[in-house]
Design a protein that fits this description.
binds fe (ii) ion, mainly alpha, p-aminobenzoate N-oxygenase AurF, Ribonucleotide Reductase, subunit A, Ferritin-like_SF
Length: 293
């Protein structure tokens, strides 16, 4: 896996490293975990559920709506856990490679913080939901086999960045949603704080590696753009989990998932979630408009 043909990545990270140090907290003592969550409260913002804005939401009983917020919160936190674990393991493998010597200090912060995020997300799921959802077996991100070594390297960090930006959209909203239980708000707030540094770093390293891709072969740029667009769509799809619908007592989970994903109100919602990331990708030269048909 050694990234032999990748040039060293040099970034100015002093400010982000200082922020990571000064904002350091003990995740194991900082949350006040209640015995249970008050009945009747949504665990996830209603406007962020996968049925929000559609007639499918209105057709649910109030009880089913609350149950859906509960299981979609568990799904959202479970996605975080699986996503972090997979992506963090890629970073761990690279931390002492020559390519990353200059950013190694920041990567240590990143790994430490992500380990803590996995812990508090899992605490929430296990304490209040009694489980984590496994990754949906039918959903897989595209293979990177057709890409050059440097493009594959870039994709590792691009996937982290995209995942973090999508999650952060949800975290930022829920951090201040007063309808949520305090503990749910807190987890979203604390995660949002750490992720603002990760996203800043992710964008910087993405740009550097993309430069190397374009320099080696400009024709690979649209191929990478297509991969990234598909990855955005894949990531959105993971939020729609039939198991969460079933747990909320909603019948025909698979058909519901299909209907919801294709509903105009949801397509509009996806565009909102992805707006910031798409703007960044376009500015970087790998937006949807460069994809060759
Ligand atoms: Fe995280
Ligand atoms: Fe992160």
């Amino acid at each position: 896996m050694a990234a032999t043909t990748i040039e060293p990545v040099v970034l100015e990270l002093d400010r982000l490293e200082q922020m990571a140090e000064s904002g350091y907290y003990n995740p194991y003592t900082m949350f006040d975990w209640p015995e249970s969550i008050e009945p009747g409260m949504p665990w996830m913002s209603e406007s962020l559920t996968t049925l929000a804005g559609t007639p499918m939401w209105d057709e649910l009983t109030r009880e089913q709506q609350i149950e859906l917020t509960k299981y979609e919160a568990i799904n959202f936190f479970s996605l975080n856990i699986h996503g972090i674990r997979e992506l963090m393991s890629e970073v761990v493998m690279r931390i002492h490679e020559r390519t990353y010597a200059n950013v190694s200090e920041f990567l240590h912060h990143f790994i430490g913080e992500e380990n803590e995020h996995m812990w508090f997300f899992a605490q929430f799921c296990l304490r209040y939901g009694g489980k984590l959802y496994p990754a949906q077996p039918t959903l897989k991100a595209d293979s990177v086999d057709h890409l050059s070594e440097v493009a594959r390297e870039m994709i590792v960090f691009a996937r982290i960045l995209i995942f973090e930006e999508i999650v952060d959209y949800y975290n930022a909203h829920m951090a201040t949603d007063q309808t949520l239980p305090h503990i749910a708000r807190e987890i979203n707030r604390v995660h949002h704080q750490d992720e603002s540094r990760h996203v800043a770093f992710g964008r910087m390293i993405f740009v550097k590696l993309l430069e190397q891709v374009a320099k080696r072969d400009p024709d690979e740029v649209p191929v990478v753009a297509e991969y990234l667009e598909n990855y955005l769509q894949y990531s959105i799809g993971t939020l729609y989990n039939p198991a969460a619908y079933r747990d909320a007592g909603i019948p025909d989970a698979l058909a519901l998932r299909r209907r919801a994903l294709a509903h105009p109100a949801r397509i509009e919602a996806h565009d909102q979630v992805l707006k910031r990331t798409r703007k960044f990708l376009t500015k970087s030269g790998v937006g949807r408009e460069v994809i060759k048909s």
